[in-house]
Amino acid sequence: MPDCPKNDQSDATERLGTPLAIGPVALRNRVFLAPMSGISDAPFRKLAYGHGAGLVVSEMIASREFCQDHAESRKRAARHDGQGPFMLQLAGREARWMGEAARIAEGNGADIIDINMGCPAKKVTSGLSGSALMRDLDHAMTLIEATVTAVNVPVTLKMRLGWDETSINAPELARRAEAAGVRMITVHGRTRAQFYDGVADWHAVAAVRAATTLPLVVNGDIADRASAQAALDASGADAVMIGRAACGRPWLAGAIAGQGAGMPAPETIGAYVLAHYDAMLDHYGAGTGVRHARKHLGWYLDAHARHVAGLATRKGAILRERDADAVKRQLAAIFAEVATETQDLAA
């Protein structure tokens, strides 16, 4: 079934489907794919943009490692044809590395540099990066200023509401970031202390709207056109960013914007999944690609479990398999069953 029926929330479609600019960079619509470590790699971004997402963002890249040319950072920073304006997200805690990484990214073709001050992961915040920076706005501003002054392309900022409910300082950070030259703000409607628990507070993002004239993007718990409309209405934001809801559904952002074809039909989903798998193998190399692809395959398979008998057992075998050709044979067999079952149900 389609993720976003054409007749559902037509007002949201009209609003979300309109262009938006970040400085000189024109975006075709206002539904963006969030940066997600281990998920929004180049093959996934290319699919999402091909399905109509207005903007896709790289995985978070550690600035110091990027400057030191680490292999993983290079993979995360890879730009492929067909993924639209290239927005690369940097994280770090030292101004010198943020500025240098931004210069390298611009030199490699990045159209926009995004600064991560929202990641809640302990391994990031324990290194005083990500959302930990919201505990020290003066230090956060040194990173923002170093990044803005290092490049000519637009710099944007992604944050949370604050560290915890006693320190909701996103409005203050947004004001200061705008004064420093940031060109767009994205706010996840949770504090760092919440991680991904509870419900995103889109209404709290309205305080950021009141604090800045910049384009504002609301993020958190947006999974369909109705929630996108509700998030815009509650926050006063100009655009939405789709994160976890897009896992296994690279078509979702475009469908919400009303500019994509939506989920592939049952008779073509098998070829679609196999093409995504091959793209990951090409991007990472066979050995690493098999491992990186497992989460994506799991999501695709879960979405069709009702059409295949005993899929849980077969899924486990696929995700443990180390041979790429064996994985592809098993996937082809399973999705052939999906096509047959759905045809029988439609008859």
Largest sheet: 8 strands, parallel, barrel
The residue fraction in helices comes out at: 40-55%
Number of helices: 15
Strand order of the largest sheet: 3-4-6-7-8-9-10-11
CATH architectural arrangement of the largest domain: Alpha-Beta Barrel
Features:
alpha/beta; 347 residues; two-stranded antiparallel sheet; TIM Barrel; 8-stranded parallel barrel
Describe the protein's architecture and organization.
The structure is a single chain. The model is unreliable at 4-9 (pLDDT under 50). Helix 2 (42-50) packs antiparallel against helix 12, helix 5 runs parallel beside helix 7 and helix 9 (202-211) crosses helix 10 (225-235). The protein folds into two domains: 10-257, TIM Barrel, CATH 3.20.20.70; 266-346. The chain starts with 9 loop residues before the first helix and ends with a helix. Helix content is 48%, strand content 13%. It is an alpha/beta fold and 347 residues long.
List the helices and strands and how they pair.
Elements: H1 10-16, E1 20-22, E2 25-27, E3 31-33, H2 42-50, E4 55-57, E5 61-62, H3 63-67, H4 71-76, E6 86-91, H5 95-107, E7 112-117, H6 122-125, H7 137-150, E8 155-160, H8 170-180, E9 184-188, H9 202-211, E10 216-219, H10 225-235, E11 239-242, H11 252-257, H12 266-284, H13 286-302, H14 311-320, H15 324-346
Parallel strand pairs: 3-4, 3-11, 4-6, 5-6, 6-7, 7-8, 8-9, 9-10, 10-11
Antiparallel strand pairs: 1-2
